[in-house]
Amino acid sequence: MxxxxxxxxxxxxxxxxxxxxxxxxxxxxxxxxxxxxxDLGGLSAHRSLIRLDLRGTGxxxxxxxxxxxxxxxxxxxxxxxxxxxDLDEVDLLGHSAGANLALLYTAAHPHRVARxxxxxxxxxxxxxxxxxxxxxxxARLRSGEPWFAEAYAALEAINQGRPTPEVWQAVAPxxxxxxxxxxxxxxxxxxERGNQQAAAVYASEGxxxxxxxxxxxxxxxxxVLVLAGAVDVGAPPRAMTEYTALFPNAELVVQPGAGxxxxxxxxxxxxALAGGFLSRVSSP
Length: 284
What we know:
284 residues, alpha/beta, Rossmann fold, eight-stranded mixed sheet
């Protein structure tokens, strides 16, 4: 397992798998260990996946200063990884909350990013509001599922400001295109993936400056892929349209039948979409 040092001396781990050009992968959560990304549905057959364990997660060291868990301060860790790998430019993939970090890194180092793939991204860093009805209408696409009534009632409770641990558990099926045994096992393992202290700091005050970020992204030269799951309540396709418009050279693709983890729902479909984008030659 390779190790490198962050600028503050924290020892960070990353995991390499697959063949092909390197692809730095930033996990979501926020602050989940990168192991849940796996081989991204078989994308490792086409790219060398470099999964970063963010500080305090997975095999990476816990930092001396918990304030360094804040998303904007993690940008220096990503840049340290790029330097460690001796790459002039990187292809960068961010999943869910990891997309926030990917955007901040890209805004800080726009000429270091060759391609940017944002998978079912969190929109928090960009200051986009997802209306409650957009989430609910996306959820209603699953109305024929046997678990729908309980999960939909829980989703309404969350949107009304009445979340409880039980309610959060009940909405889990909406994150997956198929709520089968594999999806339930993946969800059950979720509590073991994250660093709760780090997650509480990740988006704390000062982490994001949406207006400044939007200005920076509007001049981004790199091509961008925004990949949404057709039934993802967390990053609904309708909201992803506004998100995609932040970039001058971006495309939105919607993976049919997919939820928040599209490589789990249909690995072949995910690889065709994400891998196809990443294999293209950037325009000058």
